[in-house]
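Posting for a labmate who doesn't have an account.
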Amino acid sequence: MKKFVPFEKLSKKKQKELNKSKRNAWEINPVTRREKNPKAYDRNKLRSEKFETEFIFFA
């Protein structure tokens, strides 16, 4: 039988392994997701709109 060791007392390496094993069970991606600000300047949006209009014009 293994001895119980509190999480805080584990080595950093063991803590990382334990956290990683728990993270694999998550069903969602924990990265913060939020909507883009529609008033903010978005250079990529302007480029994609320009490409779409050129594509339609030449087609």
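Reply:
Got it, the structure tokens are right above this. Helices lie at 12-23, 43-58.
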